[in-house]
Amino acid sequence: MAYVYNYESSVQNISENLSFSASTINKTTVDDFQSLTEFYKSYAGYHGYISVFVCTFGIISNLANIVVLTRKNMVTSVNVILTWLAVADTLKMLDYLPFVTKFYILKDPNLKYFQTRDYSAIIFLLFHASFSLVCHSIAVWLTIALAIFRFLFIWFPTYGTVWCSPFRAKIVICSVYISIIVLSIPNYAINSYSYDNETELYMSAKSESLKDEWFDDANQYIHSILFKLVPCFMLTILTLLLIYAMHKAYIKRKELKRFGKKEDADRHHEHNRTTGMLLAVVVMFLITELPQGILTLIVSSNPEWETKVYNKLGDVLDIVALCNNSVNFVLYCSMSKQFRDTFVRIFCHCCPKDGMGFLKVQLNTTANGNKNYMATMNNGHSNNAATFV
């Protein structure tokens, strides 16, 4: 039996299939955005309380970082950068704490988020929008500088100490702070507010006089390229370079141990631990920045994603960034013995500086070859009653 091809029927079937697929895709997209909106609304009720806890811990821990890292025995080029990184993180959380308290915890349940009847509150909101961006961008670029300094130091050991001196670190820090403040000028200018006479509400908005001018375009390019995409790219490259440098240092340490140079091997091991700690700091920033960089890239090609996706993930991105800002203290304590010892010496006066309690235990060898432990007072005088054989 011959097969007769029905062109019109085939076209109709294809059209029906395409219509079904399109409707399915549209329905899925709408459902996805709806689910995201529901998640945004449900999480917003908890965001304020979680942020207050994280900010409180972060402010205290970063102040401790600043105190410890500025001691004379801790002054190195890397620690100078870490100090000003802690300053930027502290300033950001000091700003975020009143923001989240006002607009989340004490929010009027009858108003939408970021709407207010208070003129001073909307002015603070505009300040927060620019100030938090400046602090966060400074922290990101200081992390990049930190990774570059450490890479130069371990990759070029002969010239690294000269290239990465504390004085040059201070120059880099000043350059980062000044550059970010200047580059954020378009963001200061474009942020404004609107007032609804009927509802008597203030809300944030773009400046009507500047939103069609070059300020808006400049702000978009600076934010997406210099504050998001370029840092993500550089952090990724520097992370890979530091991992490779650590691998080379590990191989060199094994060779030193094989040739009996234990002291040099231990020194390399300590340098590797420091590099590992700084690598952890860089990776934490990369984990924080990479999702934002990807979303920024998507928004630049599909602007409707800014309101449908990016803004609804804003709270999640904020809390991840806040956790990153407050976790450095834990990294330093867990990975740096010098930091731990300095912290204990400054803040833990009740802890003994040496020995157990008020005794200092010393191993002695007698004339006949026997060994005993002689406990002495912390003032150096022998305590004959506390001899352990």
How would you describe this structure in keywords?
single chain, 389 residues, mainly alpha, three-stranded antiparallel sheet, 73% helix, disordered C terminus
Structure report:
This protein is mainly alpha-helical and 389 residues long. The chain is 73% helix and 9% strand. The chain is built from 12 helices and 6 strands. It has a 3-stranded antiparallel β-sheet. A 3-stranded antiparallel β-sheet has the order 4-5-6, with no helix packed on it. α1 runs parallel beside α10 and α3 packs parallel to α7. The longest helix is centred in the first third of the chain and has 63 residues.
Class inferred from helices and paired strands? mainly alpha
Q: Share of helix among residues?
A: over 70%
* Shape verdict: globular
- Residue stretches low in confidence (pLDDT < 50, at least 5 long) are 1-30, 355-363, 375-389
Estimated radius of gyration:
29 Å
What can be said about the biggest beta sheet?
A: 3 strands, antiparallel
CA(first)-CA(last) distance: 108 Å
Content of β-strand = 5-15%
Mean pLDDT: 78
**Strand neighbour order, sheet with most strands:** 1-3-2
Strand elements, count = 6
DSSP helical segment count: 12
